Structure formats: structure tokens, C-alpha cells
Amino acid sequence: MLTLDTDIIKINRVGKIMASRLKKLGVETARDLLFYFPFRYDDFTKLTPINKLQADVSANVIGQIELIQNKRSWKKKMYITEALINDGANKLKVIWFNQPFIANNLHSGDKVSLAGKVEYEYNCLLMVSPMYEKIDRGQAIHTQGLVPNYYLTANITQKQIRFLIKQIINLTEQLVDWLPAEIKSEFKMLNLQQAIAQIHFPKNNSDIILSRQRLAFDELFLIQLQSQITKVELDKSLATPINFYEKETKDFVDNLPFKLTNAQRLSAWDIIKDIGKSKPMARLLEGEVGSGKTLVACIAMLNVALAGKQAVLMAPTEILASQHYNTLCQLFSRFNLKIGLITRSQKQIFNFPPKKTNDFPQIFNKNKIKNQDIINNSNIIIGTHALIQEKIKFKNLAMAIIDEQHRFGVEQRAALLSRTKTSQNKLMPHLLSMTATPIPRSLAMALYGDLDLSIINELPKNRKKIITQVVPEAKRLKVYEFIKEQINQGRQAFVICPLIDLSDKLGVKSVEEEYLKLDKTIFPDIAIGRLHGRLKFAEKEKIMRDFLDNKIKILVSTSVVEVGVDAPNAAIIMIEGADHFGLAQIHQFRGRVGRSNWQSYCFLFTDSQVNKTLERLAALVKHANGFDLAKIDLKLRGPGEVYGTIQKGFPELKIASLFDYILMKQARDQAIKLINQDPTLSIWPKLKEKLHETGKIVHPE
Ligand code: ADP
Ligand code: MG
Questions:
Q1: Which residue has the least CA distance to atom 15 on ligand 1?
Q2: Spatial separation of the C-alpha atoms in residues 414 and 389, rounded to whole Å
Q3: Residue 595 Cβ < 6 Å to ligand 1
Q4: Is the torsion defined by CA of 385, 389, 395, 396 positive or negative?
Q5: If you measure from the C-alpha of residue 295 to the centroid of ligand 1, how many angstroms do you get, rounded to a whole number?
Q6: What is the separation of C-alpha 330 from the centre of its chain, rounded to a whole number of angstroms?
Q7: CB of 258 shorter than 6 A to ligand 1
Q8: CB distance 651 to ligand 1 below 6 Å
Q9: Are 157 and 148 in contact (CB under 8 A)?
Q10: Is residue 660 within 6 Å of ligand 1 at its C-beta?
Q11: Closest by alpha carbon to 30, among 178, 191, 167?
Q12: Containing H/E element for 619?
């Protein structure tokens, strides 16, 4: 018998291949399938009799096939399938192009439901390439009513997934509804069983709205509840208080080649105050790309290190980690500190200040040392998630910093913190998360109720607005000319290429092609490098270094340069196939330039002629603020796509939106109410069980 936990492969018509494709979507059991929600619906709610059809209007027609046959058009060399449908009173001609198999699927006598556009041609109405479905057995699910559409990749069709879900939809009856009854009645919410059934097969719009409300509330409520619990725990736990080394900090700041911005100063002070307490800090540092978050983190780490404790900084990519490593080695070279680097392919330790500035970084015993040795011997440890993949123990950890926190999954962050818990002293580290993801204060508060927030809302004074243009293909050569001039003046440029297709996951093809073109024909005299995911680490690292050292003038790259990397001398970023990226992502790319006092430029190229796309890209010309752009993206592309990229690493929201303030507030209020009533949640055993299943979070972000 089927249950919610039944392996997907036991479901009728799921073979090995289908099962592995479903697995790619994260679907392994019947339950997973039920919780794979549609992102939109086709509206085929109105069944039209054939004699009421109108040209240029989409319609749903039911009838019997009187005749069906394939023809071959000799002119265009393609197949045309023609059919005649009878709805009992009238007849309608239907044609499909280049899908000859349809004549094998449908036969005269079959009852079918068709959905598609009606056109007026050759003096009569006909339906062109409609979706079709046999309805001899039961009700139509693909062509009638509100038809769900799912995000699919990996060779699964909408029809297949609907068919599978339809088969098991009755399993919803086995679901345990864990939401306390008092909450359901207060907000007049659907039962879970009903909500799941209706999200897949709604009868009308209000079904959709109600089931979304319930399911979105569930997601937000669980997050809020988890964060309230963490808050209660955190209030009880202890951390090492770090004294403020005022003189040294001032000395450090005074020796920087620039003045801190006011916002940097205030954020740093927030952190200094927090870590001075014996209660663990839990703070989110949010600031636009290029606003100088690293420096704020450095001030905190310096104080931790001077206090004789350890700080760890975790970055999402190796390039970024090693850039941080180099930055810190340089910045802290006057202090007697050891800085360690641990990534999958690199282990280094910066061993005391170099004698001259140009012989840094000194690397000792490269690649021979164990991670644990680096940790034992460093004041500050920088790394990627390689840091958490081995059984390592921190000796004396007082502070953990997560850079670009939105790039990490909840589990990775949790893992870092659980490692830190095994340290000898059993104290919690102070935690600082940094992000450039533009979320407004009110939202961040609602989302991370247990986190304190510092926002760097200004860029360093020397920054000029980046001039952004959507460039028509005809002007491409002009842009190349311009790049040449800029390079002659000493600047550098990025060229970003999108992935061409999914099989090209690393963007190798597009980068290599573009690189060859630029290197051989456009800029034969200029040093050009390329960067993509398939290069070996050492190679990537060398190219990035050469670029940072101004040996390479133009860097052709995939989105690997998206996060964090800092190349102050780069003044131009050219983005190919810009329509393949989200606005927020392009904004991140754009943040790679304009980091010093040169005027910088961002040139966007696209093949797309679609107005909506051009309108979307035009927003980048107008807006320089990441949050505005995220909002515009949301409006133009819909939440699914925008949050697919933005939301990575946020608590995973399948259905709720980060901008759903009201629901978020309701969820938060209810969570607080419950925790106040019974912090152990024993009154609500089903809820407790549910939280146990989902709750991988051991510490706030
Ligand atoms: P992000 O906030 O995106 O992580 P970074 O910390 O990488 O930004 O800083 C971007 C660049 O700005 C770096 O080159 C850094 O040295 C420089 N920078 C940081 N603070 C200031 C400042 N107050 N004035 C001028 N430049 C600064
Ligand atoms: Mg950064």
C-alpha cells in the first residue's frame, strides 16, 4: 500500500530513469511529491461550445474526434496533424505542427479535451497546436480548470508530473496537521490536508489563495518558532567577553589608506560593544556591494586576536577566501598575528609579519600541514566550507564570521557552529553574518527576529556612480574601442558570460568561445585571462592573482566572480547575454567595478528583443540601489525566478515570499505567543514533532 513515505519508484509509471530525474528536483518520496508545489496555473476554467468560439481567444473545448491524420507540407517540409472535433452540435478543425506522434496518441472516437488559442484562417475558425488530453477515464487534469505548472528541469514534462501527483493526491489524508487548532481558527486557515490537495488541483482562485496562505504561513511560522526557541536558548548561554583594545584599534584605523565611512564606524562599534558582553552576539551586517564590510569584520577580528582568542571567517568560494587571506595578511602585518587559510586545495599560514612588505605572504610548509595544525597555530582562520568538512576542533574560538551568508545553506552554517561548540570551553562564539542581499530593516527584523542588525548604508566617499548602458549589437565594436582606450589608461575589464545551456553548467563553452574571440581577433595585443568552474584551483587562483596584480587586463569569466572579489583597478564590466541573469545578480557583478576613484562602466549586451527583458535591463541603467532592483525584478519576473537566486541560503521558502510582511508578522506574533505560553511546546506534541523533523538550525544565522 502507498504511504507518504513510499519511495517514489514504487509509484505507478515511475521507473528508474524517472525516479532519478525526480531526485534531481529533490523528490524522493510520495510526501516530497505532494510538497512539490506549482508556481502558476493555466486558466482553462471556461468550457466553450464550438459555436461560441471566437478568434484570438484562448479556449477549452471538449468533443469527440471524428477524424485525425498526418499530412506532410511539401513546401515547408513539416508534418501537419489535422483533426476534426465534434462537440455534439458543431465541428471544429484542429491542427498541430511537427508533432506527428499525436496521430498515434489520439484516434477517431476518442473523447478529448483541448486547450489553446483559436485562430481565424482560410475562412474558418480553427485551433492551432492546442494542449490535448484524452478524457475517457475520469476528469481532465491538463486541459480543464486551473491547471498547475511546476518548475521542472531534467526532462520531466508538466503532464508527467501532474499525472503522478494526481495518482497520489489521496495520500493527503494521511498527512498530520501539526498547526495548533487555535491558530487555524484565529486566521480561518485550511487544514493541511485540504491545503495540499488544493494547491495542486484548485477549483477556483479562492482555493489557490487559501491554500497558499496556509502553506506560506506554515513556512514562516516554523522559521519564526525556531528563531524564538534559539533566542530563548541564546539568552541562557555564555560567550567569551572581548575587551576593546582602543589604542590598537585606533592605530589600525589611522593607518588605513582611507577614512572609515560613518556607517562602517557605527557598525564596528555595534560589534565591539556586543562582543564585550558575556552573552553571545548574533548580528547581521548588511551592506551594499563595495560598502566595505570586510573592514568592519577586520576590526572585530583584530580585537578578538589581541585578546588572545581565535576568530574564524568563512567565505563561500576559494577565490574569495584567499583574497580575504591576502587582505588580512596585509592589513595586520604590523601586528604580531598568525593568520591561517584552509580551503579544499589550499592550506597556508601567514607566519608573523614579513620583513619587507613585498615579500608577503610567507607560506610555510605549504600543503604539508594539517588543518588542525593551522587552527591550533592561528589567531585568525579563514576558509571555505572545507573548514567544516573535517573533524576539526577550535582551541579558543570566540568569534565566527560568515561572509556572504546568503550563499551558504542553513546546514552549512549550522555545521560551522556545531564545530565551534566542540571547543574546550563549551562557550558559544560571537556570531557575525555579512550579506549584500538587499533586505530592508523591517523585513530583516521580521525574518530574523533573533538577530541584531547593522546596516552600512553608504559607500566610501570616493565612489562614482557606475555608468550603465544596454548596448545594441551595432555598437559592440565601439565598446571594444572604448575598452582598449581604458586599458591604455591603465584600467582593467571584466567580461561576464552566462551559461549557454544547462549541460554547460560551468559556462566553459561560452567563456572559452568569448575568450578566443577577444584574444585572437579583438584584442590581440592585450593580456586576456579566463575563469570558469572547470579550471583547476591553482589555475583559477593564478589567473585571479594575475588579474589583481594587473598582469591580465581583461578577464573573461562566468559568474564565479560574482561574490566579493575585490579588484580596485577594474573599471569596466561587460555582461554578455544579460537577460540570462537576474537584476540583483547583475548588480552584484557591477559591484566588482567602481571600487576606487576611477569612473567605471557597466555594458549590458543581450540578443533578446522581448520588451519585458529590455525594460528589466533598463532598470539597471536607472537604479543604483540593490534593494530597488530586487523589487523591480520581483515585479517583472515573479518571485519564483528572483528568489531562486536571491534566496539561496535564506531559510528555504518554497511558497512564502520574503516580501510577505503581513503574513510574516502574523507568524512571528503567533510564534512568540506560543513560546511565552509554553517554551517546551509540550502542549502541542504534533508541532513539536514537526519542528524536530525540520529543525536543523542550531543557532541563528
Ligand atoms: P563588501 O562590503 O562588498 O564586502 P569590501 O569589504 O570588499 O566590500 O570593500 C570594497 C573595497 O572598498 C575594498 O577595496 C576596500 O579596501 C575598500 N574600502 C573599504 N572601506 C573603505 C573606505 N572607508 N574608504 C575607501 N575605500 C574603502
Ligand atoms: Mg565582501
A1: 292
A2: 12
A3: yes
A4: positive
A5: 7
A6: 32
A7: yes
A8: no
A9: no
A10: no
A11: 167
A12: helix 611-622
Cell triple for 422:
566542540
222-231, 254-263, 515-524, 613-622: segment of lowest average pLDDT? 222-231
pLDDT at 416 over 80: no
* Residue 581: partners with Cβ closer than 8 Å, 6 or more residues away: 498, 559, 575, 589
Of 382, 271, 392, 316, residue with least CA distance to 560? 316
Q: Which residues contact 475 (CB under 8 A, 6 or more apart)?
A: none
* 8 Å CB contact between 641 and 634: no
- C-alpha closest to that of 413 among 207, 230, 684, 148: 230
Contact between 435 and 451 under an 8 Å Cβ cutoff? The reply is no
Q: Is 529 in the pocket of ligand 1 (CB under 6 A)?
A: no
Amino acid symbol at 425: N
Burial of 476 (0-12, 13-18, 19+ CB in 10 A): middle
- The residue among 564, 529, 663, 686 whose CA lies nearest residue 210 is 663
pLDDT of residue 303: 98
Decide if pLDDT at 643 tops 60: no
Report d(CA 344, CA 613) in Å as an integer: 39
Residue-wise pLDDT for 578-621, tens only, equals 988 888 788 888 988 888 888 999 999 988 777 778 888 999 99
- Determine the atom of ligand 1 nearest the C-alpha atom of 462: 25
What is the residue whose three cell numbers read 546546514? 411
Pairing state between β 492-496 and 554-557: parallel
Q: What is the DSSP string of 241-271?
A: -----HHHHHHHHHTSSSPPPHHHHHHHHHH
Nearest to 251 by CA among 305, 325, 303, 326: 303
- CB-count burial class (<10 Å; 0-12, 13-18, 19+) for 469: middle
Sign of CA dihedral 94, 99, 100, 101: negative
pLDDT grade, residue 558 (50/70/90)? Answer: confident
Q: Atom of ligand 1 at shortest distance to CA of 261? A: 23
Ligand 1 atom nearest to CA at 456: 2
Pinpoint the alpha helices (H) of 109-255.
158-168, 181-186, 192-200, 205-236, 246-254
**Is residue 41 within 8 Å of residue 202, measured between CB atoms?**
yes
Over the stretch 160-204, which tens digit does the pLDDT of each residue have?
A: 999 999 999 999 999 999 999 999 999 999 999 999 999 999 999
The three cell numbers of residue 292 are 566595505
Q: Look up residue 47 and give its DSSP letter.
A: B
Confidence check: pLDDT of 417 > 70: no
Starting from the CA of residue 287, give the closest ligand. Answer: 1
Structural contact between residues 632 and 616, judged by C-beta atoms closer than 8 angstroms: yes
Q: Quote the ligand 1 centre to 261 CA distance (angstroms).
A: 10
Q: pTM, whole model, 2 decimals?
A: 0.67
Average confidence (pLDDT) over 402-418: 69
pLDDT at 553 > cutoff 50 = yes
Q: Is the pLDDT of residue 27 over 80?
A: yes
Task: Round to whole Å and give the CA distance between 639 and 652.
Answer: 13
Instruction: Work out whether strand 282-287 and strand 452-456 pair parallel, antiparallel, or are unpaired.
Output: parallel
Q: Is the pLDDT of residue 389 over 80?
A: no
